[in-house]
Write a structure and sequence with these properties.
By secondary structure, the protein is α+β, with helices and mostly antiparallel strands. The protein has helices at residues 2-23, 28-31, 35-45, 50-63, 67-72, 75-82, 89-104, 113-117, 124-135, 144-153, 163-176, 182-195, 215-219, 277-286, 333-338, 347-355; strands at residues 235-245, 251-255, 266-271, 291-296, 300-303, 307-318, 328-331. The structure holds iron/sulfur cluster.
């Protein structure tokens, strides 16, 4: 076994880098690469498809081209720029870090792994990516893609969700790393995991540059790896969404509390249980808004990492010009488009508010 491992250590980086020279993905933060652009792109790409991240990335960089712009951006604008990407704590952590960078690092991301790691929202993977790509530091950037590649490369069936496995695999990633091109090596691994050694039992071994050194390929176990503990089943939560429009065509929105799921974001008024239209009217009245029932509205489902929302909706018209107080607000269509950020969970309802003249 040791001989096989030695063969991987000696050959894989060269094979990988030759492949990367030809097949590297063309991404905007690579063609014009700065530490700031690498940082923003790496945070956006976590838990988000590349295509969705790219759309947001261009707008984000246009509005906030420097760390100073990010540090000084009003929170509502920042959340609006993040709208649709989910996991909004990432945006808030970006701003917290930007403020620290302005105050403690002279406005530049530090070229030091430990100092990067100390910034809010920057974990080992992101510190490794920024450190290696932007500053040439010989540090690993190990995410789920890289763990999958290494599980197969070493034909190692240990559970990749266990911290010890991650630690051991990270050591292997470092052992194979050419110390003069750590950034290219880490990016090549990311690209190989995204395009060739792909998940769900479907690796493209026939076009893989690492086939000649891959132990899972020789053993015929590529589709069995990596080993992961199956995720716990998600809790299902019933939600009733209350769509309310007033005589001026404005919609009633509410800002969520600053803690917990979707903290501090805007949403239609909702009740976190399945309730009737009558009870919904009672509920709204207690919040100071008298309404008339209009119709049953659309249903929707949204999946978070540990919970699934099964939503139904009721549509109402406000009886009189009721003045509401924060955290409630009457919002026009253009405000909804330009100022208020509604999380992706309410996509169906946002579309309804934007498209339909009346509910
Ligand atoms: Fe992954 Fe197949 Fe390449 Fe091995 S040969 S690294 S399993 S794509």
């Amino acid at each position: 076994m040791e001989l096989q491992h030695q063969k991987i250590r000696q050959n894989m980086a060269q094979l990988l880098l030759e492949w990367y020279k030809i097949h590297a993905r063309v991404l905007p933060f690579r063609t014009h690469s700065t530490p700031y652009r690498v940082w923003i792109s790496e945070i956006m790409l976590q838990q988000t498809r590349v295509s969705a991240a790219l759309e947001h990335y261009a707008r984000f960089m246009q509005e906030l081209p420097t760390i100073q712009h990010l540090a000084e951006c009003p929170e509502e604008k920042l959340l609006k720029l993040w709208e649709g990407l989910g996991y909004y704590s990432r945006a808030r952590n970006l701003q917290k870090s930007a403020k620290i960078i302005m105050e403690e690092h002279g406005g530049e991301l530090p070229a030091d792994y430990q100092q990067l790691l100390a910034l809010p929202g920057i974990g080992e993977y992101t510190a490794g990516a920024i450190g290696s790509i932007s500053f040439g530091l010989p540090v690993a950037a190990v995410d789920g893609n890289v763990l999958r590649v290494f599980a197969r490369l070493y034909n190692d069936d240990r559970n990749i969700l266990q911290p010890q496995t991650k630690k051991d695999f990270s050591k292997r990633v470092l052992d194979c790393m050419p110390k003069n091109t750590p950034g290219d090596y880490n990016q090549a691994l990311m690209d190989l995991g995204a395009m060739v050694c792909v998940p769900n039992g479907n690796p493209q071994c026939l076009i893989c540059p690492l086939q000649s050194v891959c132990l899972a390929f020789s053993a015929g176990t590529t589709t069995d790896l990596p080993t992961k503990t199956p995720p716990k089943p998600r809790t299902i939560q019933k939600i009733t969404v209350l769509m309310v429009q007033n005589a001026q065509g404005q919609y009633l929105l509410e800002k969520r509390s600053n803690n917990g799921l979707l903290a501090g974001l805007w949403q239609p008024v909702l009740v976190e249980q399945d309730i009737s239209a009558e009870l919904s009217m009672e509920f709204l009245k207690n919040r100071g808004v008298s309404v008339e029932f209009l119709k049953a509205g659309k249903g929707a489902k949204h999946i978070f990492s540990h919970i699934e929302w099964h939503m139904k909706s009721w549509c109402f018209v406000a009886k009189e010009n009721s003045v509401v107080e924060y955290p409630l607000a009457w919002v026009t269509k253009s405000q909804l488009q330009q100022e208020y950020s509604l999380p992706g969970a309410f996509k169906v309802y946002k579309q309804q508010m934007l498209k339909e003249k009346k509910l």
